[in-house]
# Entry
Amino acid sequence: MSASTPLPRTEDVGSRSGIPLDRREEWARLSEHRDRFGATHLRGLFADDPARADRYTLGVGGLHVDYSKNLVTDETLRLLAELADATGVATLRDAMLRGDHINLTEDRAVLHTALRAPRSAVIRENGHDVVPEVHRVLERMAAFAERVRARTWLGHTGKPVTRVVNIGIGGSDLGPAMAYEALRPHTDRGLEFRFVSNVDGTDLHEALVDADPGRTLFVVASKTFTTIETVTNAEAARDWLLSGLGEEAGSDAIAKHFVAVSTNADEVAKFGIDTANMFEFWDWVGGRYSYDSAIGLSLMVALGPERFREMLAGFHLMDTHFATAPAERNLPFLLGLLGVWYGGFFDAQSHAVLPYSHYMSKFTAYLQQLDMESNGKSVQRDGRPVNWQTGPVVWGTPGTNGQHAYFQLLHQGTRFVPADLIGFARPAPDLPEGLVPQHDLLMANLFAQGQALAFGRTSAEVAAEGVPADLVPHRTFPGNRPTTTILAGQLDPSVLGQLVALYEHKVFVQGAVWNINSFDQWGVQLGKVLAKRVEPALTEGTEVPDLDPSTAALVRHYRDLRGR
Ligand code: F6P
# Structure
């Protein structure tokens, strides 16, 4: 396609016939099926089909996914696949993968899959093959990472850098921070990493309180390089550096202690970072889909280029599966459609992601942006309002901690909360011998929770245990609470890449069925604009026109408390 050829527009893909989702016959058939499904219990589904666990398990790459504890039958899955077909999910997927501008409101391609494509791939954006650029930047990142890891990247005073501080927020923070945590055993433990995101100055303070300016390197990560939190923190970091090294250190110190990751070379240069120390990415990479771009620079320093590439290969493996597997054996399709089923027909408001791995402590927070910023929308791709539930609230923390906090509600509360349980068969490679036995206990809890949530404990079973009659209702577990179990051999870079790509594509499938644009984020703008207007009122007491009475009173009270 030449640069002048009009780009294919895909606004009609998701609503090919213009029929809203809830008026489609496939939706009506699911609704009737839901009525018939009624209170069908997982106990019955398993009793009726001894092969259910085998039939509803799929292995892809290093992931073994058991979705048998979901409230579905063959008929449900067939009807959901028909819905995916009618709403053009595969057509939109293909449009995304070939670089069409499916992000309509920003007129952009959505090509995070190009970030992990092999060198031999050809992926065109506006007629231009982006794969060579992706690999050129990866090579620059690798050269830089190797220098820091070899301790040959020297600071202004000639000392090697030993602390890397990533400054970024949202997609420019959550991905690298999550993956760094997840892959800790695979990192260079002689280097220290900090991830600063919050405009609350305490975040930066804690990252620097025990740091030596001569050994500290800042990676300022911002797609736009205009995000107020990141720019404010980067300026404060620059002040900290220069006050530590002496103002006269000036631009030489900035060049040796600051690198940038951005799409915006002009703003990077204005900040004072040498654009030779800038690692670029492109506007066809959404912030929340960017950690396998140069946004992962800090992570690459931690892991080393080889491990980083293993992670990219893991992503690519899942991309290939998503692109080629038939819908009924396609993991992102399956997991996405299960969410459509629960949101549309069980009134599920939220989805819990519960990794049984302490290293995965930031995984759900990462998924919150991925899922909620992508699918927290209430208009269709053409601007008409939706009349159905879209993205759920995504939440969760690592097991077993959550079991002693909110699992009570999951087991016996009135809310319907589908959950993903994620675990790894082998413990971390460098776990001391003495701690290895704890891994079986951890995983026993994962399996037990899936079992308890699905099958519960009937009042008859409870009574048969000799529980006094008045306590029986309190100690009964209704069960029938759906979970999907994702089990992998070990949490390594490849498996993490596969997992993240799985969730990326799951979110895509849901957005396509719901006919929303999963790739813009206008909903975060208003708060940013208002904060800019309110700040002078806090600092200088200036009048903010049209401030509502509640906010105006809060501003006055804040100023009183600050003695202003
Ligand atoms: O919060 C909105 C948002 O634009 C996210 O989508 C993005 O990941 C984050 O801000 C950070 O943006 P940037 O990388 O441009 O600083």
